[in-house]
Design a protein that fits this description.
It is built from 13 helices and 11 strands. The protein is α/β, with parallel strands linked by helices and 405 residues long. About 2% of the residues have low confidence.
Length: 405
């Protein structure tokens, strides 16, 4: 049988788009690259080479040609169907690495970590869509449905795994060939906050565009992984509108890549657009009166300020500034401070730094502020007193937020 492997791979991708709604919304957001011959990707991979800007889906046509030739026997019709299912499963495999956030997870023992992550992914692909050579937990006497961390710990000292490592079965020539080079395309993604945010955004957009029926067809493990990845809540404050009315235009501009616009030079997507970038100082009240729920609410809003294109520097403060750092999209879960409260002292520190505005997240349980400052201040209040006459200051704009369930 004469096969057009490129056409078959495109057909398998279209099958995923048509029959698995959420996966389809994910796969459509990645550029597809087809390689062959002496290419470093010997199977399939999602990721990018070090130094590249965009994350892509890469397929090695030779690998899939071998699968088709292997599956198509005397009963060509049945064999072709089986090969097409496996090709679709390969796309699901790469999508699931994104869903489980594997591209930014690093384990000290890389090979053991790669095997652990493939155990997670392949458990969530139906048997008819898996090739017999893909790694499954039962090969090592382990149960399905565990996390990559669990598999990583339990593969340590596993006799079968250690023998597979010694026998070289994980390479291209070995029976478990999926690991050949695909995971190497994850290289520097764990150190790139923009790439990490892009990967989350891919999942977020896919979930938003998936119907309730399509969402219901996903397995519990997959839905839990998606919800865990997207643990941030929608903003309680419409930051783009607030900044338009509250802050003067920023003098700093930057270029942003966007799939919604074509490149004027090359006629391809993504194109670029110019945006202004606000420099925002966010002071987070970390005094003892702020509980963990309020802190999560505060940092949820900080993240949405950052996602609206602002350049954000966070100042953690109680009676004074205890720590400051550029915000990169993540809340580390702990803060410095937890003492008393002095809102004015942190403003004394931050005001001379010439930010476009200061966003102060607090409960307003503090001594009175005597001075008024040059930089515009927006108070983000959680559980502040209803009686505004008891507030420590009467100037600046104030918005309220409540605990997010």
């Amino acid at each position: 049988m004469k096969l057009d492997i490129r056409k078959e791979l495109l057909r398998s991708i279209i099958s995923v788009v048509r029959h698995k709604e959420f996966y389809g919304h994910v796969v459509q957001q990645f550029e597809k690259v087809f390689v062959s011959g002496n290419h470093r990707i010997k199977t399939a991979a999602v990721g990018r080479y070090r130094g590249d800007r965009f994350i892509k889906l890469t397929y090695n046509e030779d690998y899939f040609r071998a699968i088709y030739e292997e599956q198509i026997g005397p009963d060509q019709r049945k064999g072709l169907r089986s090969a097409r299912l496996i090709a679709s499963g390969a796309t699901e495999h790469e999508i699931l690495h994104v869903v489980f956030n594997h591209l930014v997870i690093r384990y000290p023992d890389k090979l053991r970590g790669d095997v652990a992550m493939d155990c997670v992914v392949n458990c969530n692909i139906p048997k008819e869509r898996r090739h017999d050579n893909w790694i499954m937990p039962d090969r090592y006497g382990l149960p399905e449905g565990k996390s990559s961390k669990w598999y990583y710990e339990n593969l340590k000292g596993n006799d079968k795994f250690n023998k597979d490592r010694e026998d070289g079965v994980f390479g291209v020539e070995g029976i478990l060939s999926w690991l050949s080079e695909g995971h190497s395309m994850w290289g520097d993604l764990d150190k790139d906050p923009v790439a990490k945010e892009f990967l989350k955004d891919v999942i977020r957009k896919a979930k938003e565009n998936t119907s309730s029926e399509g969402w219901g067809k996903l397995g519990v493990n997959i839905k839990d992984a998606i919800d865990g990845l997207l643990e941030w809540h929608p903003p309680q404050i419409p930051w783009s509108r607030v900044f338009r009315s509250f802050c003067a235009s920023s003098e700093e501009s930057y270029l942003e890549y966007t799939m919604s616009r074509e490149s004027k030079r090359f006629g391809t997507r993504p194109g670029i657009r110019k945006r202004d970038r606000l420099r925002v100082a966010v002071i987070v009240d970390t005094s003892g009166s702020i509980d963990d729920g309020q802190l999560r609410d505060f940092f949820n809003e900080v993240r949405w300020i950052w996602r609206n294109g602002a350049k954000v520097r966070v100042f953690e403060a109680d009676t004074d500034v205890r720590d400051d750092y550029e915000f990169r999209g993540n809340f580390k879960g702990s803060v410095h401070g937890r003492g008393g409260t002095n809102l004015e002292q942190s403003l004394v520190v931050v005001d001379p730094l010439r930010f476009d505005c200061i966003v102060y997240c607090t409960d307003f349980e503090a001594p009175r502020i005597v001075r008024r400052f040059r930089t515009p201040v927006l108070w983000v209040l959680s559980d502040a007193p209803e009686d505004q006459s008891s507030w420590p200051c009467g100037w600046g704009r104030a918005v309220r937020i409540g605990h997010v369930a």
